[in-house]
Fold:
Amino acid sequence: MAGGPPKALQSTGPHSLRDMPHPLAGSSSEEAVGGDSTPSPDLLMARSFGDKDLILPNGGTPAGTSSPASSSSLLNRLQLDDDIDGETRDLFVIVDDPKKHVCTMETYITYRITTKSTRVEFDLPEYSVRRRYQDFDWLRSKLEESQPTHLIPPLPEKFVVKGVVDRFSEEFVETRRKALDKFLKRITDHPVLSFNEHFNVFLTAKDLNAYKKQGIALLTRMGESVKHVTGGYKLRTRPLEFAAIGDYLDTFALKLGTIDRIAQRIIKEEIEYLMELREYGPVYSTWSTLEGELAEPLEGVSACIGNCSTALEELTDDMTEDFLPVLREYILYSDSMKSVLKKRDQVQAEYEAKLEAVALRKEDRPKVPADVEKCQDRMECFNADLKADMERWQNNKRQDFRQLLMGMADKNIQYYEKCLMAWESIIPLLQEKQEAK
Amino acid sequence: MEQAPPDPERQLQPAPLEPLGCPDAGLGAAVGKEAAGAGEEDSGVDTMTHNNFWLKKIEISVSEAEKRTGRNAMNMQETYTAYLIETRSVEHTDGQSVLTDSLWRRYSEFELLRNYLLVYYPHIVVPPLPEKRAEFVWHKLSADNMDPDFVERRRIGLENFLLRIASHPILCRDKIFYLFLTQEGNWKETVNETGFQLKADSRLKALNATFRVKNPDKRFTDLKHYSDELQSVISHLLRVRARVADRLYGVYKVHGNYGRVFSEWSAIEKEMGDGLQSAGHHMDVYASSIDDILEDEEHYADQLKEYLFYAEALTVRTFSLKGMTTKLFGQETPEQREARIKVLEEQINEGEQQLKSKNLEGREFVKNAWADIERFKEQKNRDLKEALISYAVMQISMCKKGIQVWTNAKECFSKM
Structure:
């Protein structure tokens, strides 16, 4: 789901936003209602029931009053694999056009975010705002806070080692732009997160800072409540399936880490190989100046090695720009998942603790109190949401890795084909001369 | 090619021998190269029958290498490799005694043969021997003299060396060479009887005289220049090639790690598992394919090495050429320093006489040497072009292998 080429965005007409035509692209305002009609009424109810309990004690912004999704609707959507891309889609977001801002205090990059939607939550069919990394970071923490039961996609790493990476270099900015684009697309694709109020603000607000300031007070209270939750409850047993997810994530992160290291090592080896090739080719050139009859063949070999070097450089660049970022994203993803799992464990622990307390007092009060029931509901909702997200994630992962690895194979094939062409083209040069003689 | 003209250096040379027949230097060398390139045990015998008339009379192959232990002159235990040289005459219609022979020689004997040839044929570019120890190799390749791959490549190199001598219009008729091929015992003694060591010493003096050359022949200074440059460019090339090979090896082998990690990863995946597992297998294949690729490339490096050593031989040649010229003029210089005019005039007359004859000798020498260098140049162009072609072919096959492996891997990925 890579964004369209940046050029397409210069004209912000409805069709240029995505290469793929979609049913809502033509007349956005008319179908605005249709966008909201996707969820069935009973799902809505189930959702709002769950939501009430999900709201954290601090009374943080109710998540998605009109949020249509629940775990079961998610599952339904996931089964329609082909649907994911087109037909039910009513929100499109693209990150492009990075710009460097130099102020007296700091220098930073902003990215243009263009949104097109037919949803009623959006007053206009189209928005265009500029945001910087900090704002993305704000959005992510808001999402984490308001949708604690969901898996929030990761942002690209915030800190870069100074000196090693130039934060304002074209390559770095482009890599980051792609990652940010991916981040927003993942949220856009999510049946719950995409309806989040903060997300809406992020996409549409002229002045995001005003909203940010509002949030600060809430944030501090939120922090306390988290502390409260973590305070001392001990989990009895993790349900098997979540234990399995946990184990899976550990191994997955480990393996991806290894692949990341291998890929980096390969790139390093390839760059060193490239440097040697760059020296190797010209030696043939030097030699050719000594020779009469052999001059041309030697020159040919030199040029051929030059072509191979160029092909190799392209391969290395592709790997650095396309392969590594995806790996990184998934490594970060597994961290986000682990933190959601942890939160789930906390909710379960809280429930178990309450249940225990009730059991002690059972003789006094035969009925399970309402707050314990609430707690149970909360846990079950959490479980359902998480399971759905996990499944969705698994599906995405499979698609992404298929694409990624096929891409890697393709790039290598292309590289070898270029080299093959280069070497085949000099064979006649070598043979012809011989026959002529 | 014509029979070589009568040798003016005959007094330096032992009587030529007939059985090796009339050579065609070019074809012989070319075919020899092919045989070496093919690298098959008996290729020398099997493939070299076509339009090659000296070969119709005799075929030479170094068909086997064997590790041996023996005692050296100091009665110390030593291990060495012996090479089996097989010679066979093909035509035996005329009832001559059929020359079919096989005998063992070790590297040092090849060296002795070459040293002898160097001394007795100063105007000829004597083919070089393969390297005694592996040089310019990428680090994974063993530098051990007993390493089977190294022994095998040296076997090919030694065969090539013999074929090059046998295809040389003059060298092929040398008696010592003939005995080297046919007489196992006493060969060393025969070589020593020729007294070539003494000549070698005088040749050394000539070498030392080099720097006093007054009027060097421009062709030879050019040649000297060329061979110096060739030597430096080829050794540079070989050095860089070894590094390129090292890096390429790294790139391939690191891919091999994917094989392991894909396979481990596949264990925790459901739908993706099979695809990952088999893709991992292809990565293993990819990583191990580099061993053969670089082993093949080593043959190319050997071909270049031969010319590196040729370039060295050429340098020595030009040195001795200059040495010869120096000898001619050397006679003159002391006389000029003499103050006694009468004696001087007499001596000058004498000197001029001497100079005349020496000049004649020298010119003859230069002519022959130049002819051989021309022959060498042609052979070099042909050989190197062939080497370049086979290098390109190697690269092509490497690319094809790469495409194949990645296509297979892609197939696996697409099923995920």
